[in-house]
Design a protein that fits this description.
By secondary structure, this protein is α/β, with parallel strands linked by helices. Helices cover 42% and strands 20% of the residues. β8 (196-200), α9 and β9 form a beta-alpha-beta unit.
Amino acid sequence: MFDKATLLCNVDPLILSALKEDITSEDVSTNSVVKGPVQGTADLICKEEGIICGLDVFARVFELMDPATKVELLKKDGDKVVPGELLATVTGDMRVILSGERTALNYLQRMSGIATYTNKTASLLEGTKTKLLDTRKTTPNNRVFEKYSVKVGGGNNHRYNLSDGVLLKDNHIGAAGGVKEAIAMAKEYAPFVRKIEVEVENIEMVKEALEAGADIIMLDNMTPEMLKEAIALIDHKAEIEISGNVTKENLAKYVEMGVDYISSGALTHSSPILDVSLKNLHPIA
């Protein structure tokens, strides 16, 4: 769903909002020690092994503050990085480098952490037909960054937002009066080109979803025994997604089940950051 061009077309207002959050009037610390324009340079250094992601966003923070800032990227998104590796250099007004440092690093560390965690999780599915999906469990106003990072890490994007696809969850089913009723209403309302996915929690709901003609059946929070029974019952009559508290640590028990998709909110809500640092700032002639 996301490539770099799509990402960069959408991020400027979000980055500017993040900068405004961090600098409401002035950077008191920087203005105390740098009284006017002074050219300087700093090094972006990796401190932890992982997958780097968000380098162009990192650079864009400084460019939005001052278009004269030059960021030389020595790596690209998706590259493996190791501690001590020089990833980029930033050259420009030292006031810009100092004031933009934290916002730029916040994006880069968060995005790289998601890409790294996703990469480790996706590697567990290598050699199978199963695709690893993200979810809408993203940080508000940061979804574009986080879903891009999943793609860089080797995962796949589920729907981007509520306008992007039909997914009937437990409360939709409750509002409609049942699985069959919800699917029938969705088929009547949604364009025929859209697939209809329904979340089910037990075998009876699986049977109802099959009878109603669901395109994708999400098996949510089922035990391994129940999953096997549901998968056998579906028997390729619909695509199958497994969901519900799936993490890198417990994914192994689902790998051999042969389903089409496994979705994990942990990719975006529980991945730790990747440690990178902007160091060695000094003035230049």
